[in-house]
Amino acid sequence: MSKLPNVTTSIFTVMSKMAAEHNAINLSQGFPNFPVDERLTEIISRLSVEDVHQYTPMSGYPPLLAKIATLVKSSYNRNILPETEILVTAGATQAIFTILLALLKPNDEVIILDPSYDCYEAPILLSQAKPMRVSLNDDYTPNWNTITSAFSDKTKMIIINNPHNPTGKILNESDLKNLEILLEKNPNVLLLSDEVYEYITFEQKHISTHTRIKLLDRCITVSSFGKSFHVTGWKIGYLVAPEYLMKEIKKVHQFLVFSVNSICQVAVSEYLDLVDINEISPFYQEKRDYFRSLLKSSRFQLMPCEGTYFQVVSYANISNENDVDFCKRLITDYGVAAIPISTFYADGKDLKLIRFCFAKDNQTLEEAARRLETI
Fold first, then answer.
1. Are strands 310-314 and 336-337 parallel, antiparallel or unpaired?
2. Is the separation of the CB atoms in 225 and 237 below 8 Å?
3. Is the dihedral of CA 370, 371, 372, 375 positive or negative?
4. pTM of the predicted model, to two decimals?
5. Cross-strand partners of 289
6. What DSSP line would sit under 275-323, residue for residue?
7. Rounded to an integer, what distance in angstroms lies between the CA atom of residue 366 and that of residue 332?
């Protein structure tokens, strides 16, 4: 008997497979197709013949842990202890899976804000806990009255994703204050903050949970070097948590992966001495602005994009099809792959919106836009 009877092949796999079968431009899955920074590939090339191929300590390569602490300090003015409050993970998905398995008990309830990324629900169900899906407003702002109403004496955790995938929305100061008030009223509830796109923000600046003193003693924050440094296939991220929570998280981590691949940890550690983290947002803002300019002459309506490397568009002026069927026809008839937003909702809410990834080279974006203009 299946432990996850309602879990099927992810929409990202479905659309990427269709894109390959129809030789379509794949703007569905969130991975860059441009070259990695030469400084990083040079580090990897050099390290490949050095003695860095054995297990690192469970928590992570010690110099990398120290540099993560420095990064959090420089980015958010928060002091954290490398030895007890940081864990290097095999990507953000493994971080989230580990957190949920470590901290949830049967019948606990976890608030998830829809549309939501698809990796949250499975580990909740495997923990025999209950996902409580609460829809954001149609403009993707949080409805704090609705969220508050979803809390009960069984609520153990709320998950936020900021900047938000799939919509590119960023929580503002008012949202963070409302979150603080809500958690003050519910002192036993934990917060999982998925911030993998923290360094990809534009006019609306990201407000990290690292900066919220009222939240730090019960917040676990997840980050991704794979996203930030355009190396998604490396599957390397990290989480920050107070020591009393980290002790429980590490108990699961040591039997799930024990330690993350050594060469990538050493490479990222060295790369952090060279890269300017503040160059990431301008790089992607240029990509966003260029892609938006290319789509202006199309029939798609561009939605706001405050962060991430995803652009949501409305096709309501083009078709009455549901968004899954429209995305499939977009591949078969026009050669461009996108992701239907309804698949991020528990109830399949269809607002005639789809998501494109613009983390692509300009030639790819130009050809995709040329095809989209013909619709």
1. unpaired
2. yes
3. positive
4. 0.96
5. none
6. --GGGHHHHHHHHHHHHHHHHTTSSPEEPP--BSSEEEEE-TTT--S-H
7. 19
pLDDT(185) > 90: yes
Q: What is the pLDDT of residue 10?
A: 87
**Dihedral angle over CA of 357, 359, 363, 364, nearest 10:** -30
Q: Give the end-to-end CA distance of the chain in Å, rounded to a whole number.
A: 45
Out of 28-32, 260-264, 359-363, pick the least confident: 28-32
Tell me how far apart the alpha carbons of residues 325 and 217 are, in angstroms, rounded to a whole number.
Answer: 45
Phi/psi for 159 (5° steps) reads -105, 130
Q: For tokens 């169900």, name the residue.
A: 125
Is the separation of the CB atoms in 90 and 60 below 8 Å? no
Distances (CA, A) of 52 to 57, 61, 161, 179, 328: 12, 10, 34, 43, 45
Q: Angle, nearest 10°, between helix axes 91-103 and 243-256?
A: 110
How much is the average pLDDT of 170-197?
98
Instruction: Supply angle C-alpha 202, 183, 73, rounded to 5.
Output: 45
Residues 131-152: tens digit of each pLDDT: 999 999 999 999 999 999 999 9
> What single-letter amino acid sits at 353?
L
Tell whether the model's pLDDT for residue 267 goes beyond 90: yes
Q: What is the pLDDT of residue 29?
A: 86
Distant-in-sequence, close-in-space partners of 8: CB < 8 Å, separation ≥ 6: none
